[in-house]
Amino acid sequence: MVFGMVSEDNVIEDSVSVEDDFDGDDYDYDDGGDYYDDDYGDAGDDDDDYGLVEDDDFDDPGAMVSRRPKLGYTVLQEADIKQRQEDDISKVSTVLSLSQVEATILLRHYNWNVNEVHDEWFSDEERVRKSFGLFERPVVDVSYANEFTCGICFDLLPCDNFASASCGHSFCRECWQGYICTSINDGPGCLLLRCPEPSCKAAVGPDMIDKLAPCEEKEKYSQFLLRSYIEDNREAKWCPAPGCENAVNFAVGGGDFDVTCLCSYRFCWNCTVEAHRPVDCETVTKWMLKNSVDGENVNWILHNSKTCPKCKRPIEKNQGCMHMTCTPPCSYEFCWLCLRAWSSHGLATGGFYSCNVYEAEMQKGNVDAEMRREMAKNSFEKYTHYYERWASNQSSREKALEDLNRMESENMEKLCNVQCTTMSQLKCITEAWLQIVECRRVLKWTYAYGYYLPEHEKTKTQFFEYLQGEAEAGLERLHRCAEKELDKYVTADGPSSDFDDFRTKLTGLTSVTKTYFENLVRALENGLEDVNSTACNKTASPRSPASPRSPTGRNGKGRGSRGKESPRAGVSPKNVDDTSK
């Protein structure tokens, strides 16, 4: 059991088997290796597997696939939703011997749960009918006069101008139409419409809408009814992608919450934010709140300004002098360091550029506000570090999507013609770009993961940063291959003799990168628990974590660590420059 990404040279030599690349006796980052070696694998029993690449997986390609969760969801288009809705209505109507309208009203009230409708109906039919206004016969006597007086507009009109719900309360069609249209234009509440008679609770069903509403309102009502089938269903949600009208039906217990719609948008079914594995929904919520402008404005104000001692407005110091004057109408003059009145300052307190009062207070430990500002500044710097890298990977992902679209729409056909090949043989290029897009997404969220790692767990943080650095290094190799190395084949004057070798190399890099990221996600979702018991001990001994050979990189810093960037963790110069051969 070993960790690591393989180099491009090894991929070219053998794009299927990579176990020969994991035969080191020591994880020495200066000997050309770019991965963990068997030294980690021997640290515990066979069951203590916490590696990100397993040798056995490459001997048996089906092993990795068998451990991946099967799709536990179904993407529903509008026609699928309508069909399911109609099937449920027909099922309830048949079993309970009700009209389609009554079945629709019941299902709507019970959030389209067929089993719950059956249970409640057979438990107490009378109570259900009374609760939801399903009357078996009119509650008022029906008059057989030729004319009626409308109870809303009080006009005397012929009887054929009147209509009523199951209760029998008659109103003229014009008043009914106004009542229905107003309710529909007010929103989805029209699905729970009741009789206009104030004391009556009779339900107004889809049949009344079809009979009395104009075409535009009928269409709105139909859309509300269709959307309620998803929005009121505990197992279905709409795809949040702009302009997408598909829904996803998710089977509880069907694995992780990441789902992919037919529109290609991938999101978390649980919180409907874009897919964010390996970060959980709670962390995503905290991170997105942290990214809000208001939250960071507060932090900026805390470490870049102080409040006026008199009016309490925040003031930013923009000149070197400690003599501060608040803006009118306050105009209070005070010392920036000790926040006391400037009138009490002079040569005895150090003058303009220093403050003996402040120094004395520091010696007594009475500078809590200053400490808080310093802590806020440090916190802001940490956040900025992770946010910049989070946003950078998001930008790279968006650019990769653009490059993928351009490749499919413009360059694929050109590449076919230049290299005299078929589209099916270029499938590896599309797969590589899709993998790049997915890996950028995962890498982006690892920075949110790293931001919330407990600061006291130094070894776990070190180990995480190494794994993150390896992931970034491997992704950069794949991205460079799919972007820059491919370009020379697109712009070539004729077929290239080494194009087949390039395809083999690209396929191998895609496969290895995919496997690494899948295992990285699983390791982070498990909280890197095995690191505490086994790998961390190997990290701390015999070498110091700060040594050049530490698991966080040559200079003791991984790609995810702060400070000046060091070479990619675990990547030898050979691997960084090997495309120049």
TrEMBL record:
Keyword field: Metal-binding, Repeat, Transferase, Ubl conjugation pathway, Zinc, Zinc-finger
Biased composition (Acidic residues): 10-49
Repeat keyword on record: yes
Compositional bias annotation for Low complexity: 540-554
EC number: 2.3.2.31
Region (Disordered), start-end ranges: 1-49, 534-581
Cofactor list: Zn(2+)
Residues in RING-type domain copies: 146-359, 150-194
Catalytic activity: [E2 ubiquitin-conjugating enzyme]-S-ubiquitinyl-L-cysteine + [acceptor protein]-L-lysine = [E2 ubiquitin-conjugating enzyme]-L-cysteine + [acceptor protein]-N(6)-ubiquitinyl-L-lysine
Domain of life: Eukaryota
InterPro entries the record matches: ARIH1-like_UBL (IPR048962), E3_UB_ligase_RBR (IPR031127), IBR_dom (IPR002867), TRIAD_supradom (IPR044066), Znf_RING (IPR001841), Znf_RING/FYVE/PHD (IPR013083)
Biological pathway: Protein modification; protein ubiquitination
TM annotation in the entry: none
PROSITE patterns on file: TRIAD, ZF_RING_2
Entry similarity comment: Belongs to the RBR family. Ariadne subfamily.
Function as written in the Swiss-Prot or TrEMBL entry: Might act as an E3 ubiquitin-protein ligase, or as part of E3 complex, which accepts ubiquitin from specific E2 ubiquitin-conjugating enzymes and then transfers it to substrates.
Protein name: RBR-type E3 ubiquitin transferase
Species for this entry: Gossypium hirsutum (Upland cotton)
Gene coding for it: LOC121206293
